[in-house]
From TrEMBL:
Keywords: Signal. It comes from Spirosoma utsteinense. InterPro entries: CarboxyPept-like_regulatory (IPR008969), DUF5686 (IPR043741). Transmembrane segments: none annotated. This is Carboxypeptidase-like regulatory domain-containing protein. The lineage of its organism: Bacteria, Pseudomonadati, Bacteroidota, Cytophagia, Cytophagales. Residues 1-17 form the signal peptide. The keyword DNA damage does not apply.
Length: 897
């Protein structure tokens, strides 16, 4: 009986799904219009056409009014009647006819685009706050195609490309597809919820749902690009009025729509160009087509078409295209998004009939003073007055947000959270049948996309058969199902064994850490780590609450030159934002604990250039470190107590022979040269015992803002508050000193892709009764032509230990990055992704003589080939006296540790 009832229900659903509307949208020349909007008036239903101009939408039998929209074409409304099966409705759209405003013809008048944009900008935040909450069904489809690979890559990786085609359905020229159907919700001020109910990929079974995002051109920036509706828009754009057209608006009332050409003053990364269509009187966005480029030269084209939902124009049809090449790989991608709103609540305080007067064209009948707005409710102000100046409207919205934030504080809500996202994956999302997809899919598949899915389905069956091979005895071969099986080759390659869902044993191959220096000779290092994570799973793997993490491991290092084995053990436990770690053993460290030159780079300089820069000493130690982030991670506290025996080391032998014998070069002793101690002999020290206490506190001077993702709190990277750090070190035992230092670092935008970064630091030994060279304050120097590490606080030409001090110091670093400075004034240069910077580094110690570096750098040394590198020219100065000029190839990449 239950089976019959289930069968009857399925048949009823299937019968309902077999009725609807389909057709093709073309222009008068017979060309298809891809991704045109198809809206069913009076219902939440809608769709868009595919790349072949075809649409299909499931609808119950009945009569409908259907609206067809395409950017740059006149909207058309057609009646449709559905009785049984799919009715066909083909549409031909005509290009939009524009009429010009009379004011444009008057000589000397300002282009009417500017008064339109001033009003639209003034009302932009109003439109963002207008929607109180909504629920929607969102269909997205992304398609990425690699169109060409470098000949060298095709030759070198021919076998891997064949395997990728066989195993993952990847092939040059074939689109990689992802479809996603989600139920999303939003509520003011910052809560977004997404539940993925169906997901499908043409490259395998991996789940790749598109994170719900709320890109709004009413925001000042859109993915770090200045919006044409930003309050700063006039500094970056010029605008031209291109004409006005009329179409049906909400409730059948005609609306006037003006086309505005967006012209960047300097095109390149960080700005758009194209067209934006603004609705007269409401000054809302009707549609837009804008393009931009990113820092590696890829071009992006964005198209939005809005439709009225309860009187509010919302983006229901979005399309994104990307094209270009990177490192010789050419390709293009497309992302389309169709949104159907089914629950929509408008904030009653933000009524759309508010009129905005442009003060530059004529003040409103009444202008409000600041005191007339402060403390007043927006709803009350709107009831008394319908027309406001652009300035007054901005002040009113700002006051509204201030009052809302205070109300949230009074309700004990966390106002530092600027966005709260969650993502839930339905357990059946990847198991939906083709019938289910046909009922959900808003955009029909093209023929090429259908073939791609069919091939992936065939490969899926082949992979399933391949996993269940039958051997000669008739038993299943489970070799491929044993990922934790130990193989001898893993001793050299490294391996991670997932013992349970929470436990993993990680072995790092010594082949990844083969190093050379004049103290150890050749050295190989291996790491073994056992990790255990305790967590609580919620609905799916995207929502897990981390309770704690245990780590137990060890590092062993074989020194071939010294013929010794050193190493240390480590055990740690982390609970939420608190971590306790205990380590101990014997190991070699650089005098500067920040490792000014990485072991990997030092290996290169030693073997190839006969320059060993890393100066090492040995520690036998036990260290206890505790770190915590209290006050909602606004403060980071770290404390360590170490008992150590420190020993000086010499080169492993005299007269070490280099690979290449450079003229006028020889390997130096392991004792650094230091101006304060008068020569390398003075930096030596006896073997001694020391107890070291190290305390550090750092925090932002302003309020830290956060985002929440699936319950996890994350500090925003673009937090522009200065970071203050205070450090205290105490030496006891065979040493006796007290050291205190403080630093402040800050980075903030000065324009599009332009930034000013600085770091100031100062400190002194309050007590210097007894200390050795490892206790000195060391600085981020550099003596090699390749500059790595922090671009802001790293000196470019300073010898590593020449001005290390046991007394006092002050240093200052300033780096200004420019999108447009000297050669980047040229648009073609900017479009390659090049960026210029100017920097100053200053150091004061008793022996440094006001050491100063002034330099100029060009980021993106070879665009799209070496985009992570920069070339720099630096001048050296001491006591305002010029000392020389140097050049560096810079990178922020870390080599080795």
């Amino acid at each position: 009986m239950k089976f019959c009832l289930l069968l009857f229900t399925l048949l009823a659903v299937a019968a309902h799904a077999q009725t609807g509307l389909r057709g093709t949208v073309k222009n008068k020349q017979g060309e298809v219009l891809p991704y045109a909007a198809v809206i069913i008036k009076g219902t939440p239903s809608g769709t868009i056409t595919n790349a072949e101009g075809r649409y299909e939408i499931a609808l119950a039998p009945g009569k409908y009014d259907v609206v067809f929209q395409f950017l740059g074409f006149q909207s058309v409304q057609k009646p449709a009647e559905i009785s049984s099966g799919f009715a066909t409705l083909d549409v031909v759209l005509e290009e939009q006819a524009f009429r010009l405003a009379e004011v444009q013809a008057k000589a000397g008048n300002e282009d009417p685009a500017y008064t339109i944009m001033r009003r639209a900008i003034a009302k932009s935040r109003f439109h963002q706050l207008q929607v109180q909450q909504f629920r929607a069904r969102v269909y997205t489809k992304s398609s990425a195609t690699i169109t060409d690979l470098p000949n060298l890559a095709e030759m070198a990786f021919r076998k891997q490309l064949k395997e990728a085609e066989r195993d993952f359905n990847f092939k040059v020229g074939v689109p990689m597809l992802n479809e996603n159907v989600s139920e999303v919700s939003f509520s003011q001020p910052n809560t977004y919820r997404q539940k993925v109910i169906a997901n499908r990929n043409s490259q395998g079974d991996f789940l790749n749902p598109s994170r719900f995002f709320n890109v709004s051109f009413y925001s000042p920036t859109v993915s770090d690009v200045v919006s044409p509706l930003s309050p700063k828009a006039f500094a970056y754009y010029k605008f031209e009025y291109k004409g006005t057209f009329r179409e049906q608006g909400p409730d059948g009332v005609p609306v006037e729509i003006s086309k505005i050409q967006v012209i960047p003053r300097q095109y390149g990364e960080g700005v758009f160009r194209g067209s934006i269509f603004i609705i007269e009187n409401t000054w809302a966005i009707h549609s837009l087509q804008l393009e931009t480029v990113n820092n590696i030269g890829l071009s992006f084209t964005i198209r939005h078409v809005c439709s009225p939902v309860k009187g509010v124009w919302m983006p229901t049809n979005q399309r994104y295209n990307v094209a270009g090449s990177y490192l010789g790989v050419k390709g293009h991608g497309q992302y389309v998004r169709s949104i159907t709103f089914n629950e929509f609540v408008v904030n009653p305080a933000f009524v759309e009939d508010i009129q905005v007067a442009d003060e530059k064209k004529g003040a409103p009948a009444e202008t409000l003073a600041k005191r007339d707005i402060k403390g007043k409710q927006l709803e009350d102000l709107v009831k008394k007055q319908k027309e406001f100046s652009t300035k007054n409207l901005r002040q009113m919205v700002k006051e509204y947000e201030k009052q809302e934030k205070l109300a949230r504080k009074n309700r004990k809500e966390d106002v530092t959270v600027v966005r709260d996202d969650s993502l839930v994956i339905d357990s059946l999302a990847q198991k939906r049948s083709n019938v289910f997809w046909d009922s959900l899919r808003s955009v029909p598949l093209t023929n090429a996309e259908t073939k791609s899915y069919q091939k992936n389905d065939s490969l899926k069956i082949a992979r399933t058969v391949d996993k269940v091979k039958i051997d000669g005895t008739g038993k299943r071969d489970t070799t491929r199902k044993a990922p934790n099986r130990f193989l001898p080759g893993q001793l050299l390659s490294g391996k991670t064994w997932n013992l349970t869902k929470q436990t993993a044993l990680i072995y790092t191959s010594p082949l990844t850490r083969i190093e050379y220096n004049t103290v150890e000779g050749y050295a190989v290092e291996g790491v073994l780590n056992l990790r255990y994570r305790s967590k609580v799973d919620s609905i799916n793997r995207f929502q897990q609450i981390q309770l704690g993490e245990w780590n137990v491991g060890g590092t062993g290092r074989d020194q071939f030159g010294r013929k010794q084995l050193v190493g240390f053990g480590l055990a740690s436990y982390q609970h939420k934002n608190t971590k306790v770690s205990l380590s101990g053993g014997r190991y070699l460290y650089q005098f500067n604990p920040d490792n000014p030159i990485s072991p990997a780079l030092n290996t290169l300089t030693t073997l190839l250039f006969e320059q060993n820069f890393a100066k090492l000493y040995q520690k036998d130690f036990v260290n206890l470190t505790i770190s915590a982030s209290p006050f909602k991670e606004r403060l980071v506290l770290t404390g360590s107590l170490e008992q150590t025996q420190r020993s000086e080391l010499a080169n492993f032998k005299e007269n070490i022979k280099p690979w290449i014998n450079w003229r006028n070069r020889t390997f130096t002793a392991n004792r650094p040269q230091n101006a304060e101690l008068n020569g390398p002999e003075s930096t030596g020290f006896p073997t001694h015992q020391a107890t070291l206490l190290d305390l550090t506190a750092s925090g932002r001077l302003g309020a830290t803002e956060y985002t929440i993702r699936n319950g996890r709190r994350i500090a925003r990277r673009d937090n522009d508050s200065p970071l203050l750090t205070v450090n205290y070190r105490k030496g006891m035992g065979d040493v006796d000193y007290d050291f205190l230092q403080a630093s402040i670092a800050h980075s903030f935008e000065t324009g599009i892709r332009s930034q000013l970064n600085y770091k100031l630091a100062a400190g002194a030994f309050l007590n210097d009764k007894k200390l050795y060279f490892p206790d000195f304050k060391h600085f981020a120097g550099n003596e090699f032509f390749l500059q790595q590490g922090d671009v802001v606080s790293g000196f470019r030409l300073l010898p590593y230990y020449q001005y290390s001090t046991g007394k006092r110091f002050a240093e200052a670093h300033v780096l200004a990055e420019f999108r447009k400075f000297l050669i980047t004034q040229l648009t073609l240069v900017r479009l390659t992704g090049l960026k210029e910077n100017v920097f100053i580094h200053y150091l004061y110690t008793p022996a440094s003589k006001n050491y100063t570096e002034v330099g100029y750098g060009l980021d993106g040394l070879i665009p799209q080939v070496l985009p992570f590198f920069r070339v720099e020219v630096i001048s050296q100065w001491q006591d305002a006296s010029y000392k020389g000029l140097g050049f560096r190839i810079g990178t922020t990449l870390k080599f080795g540790r």
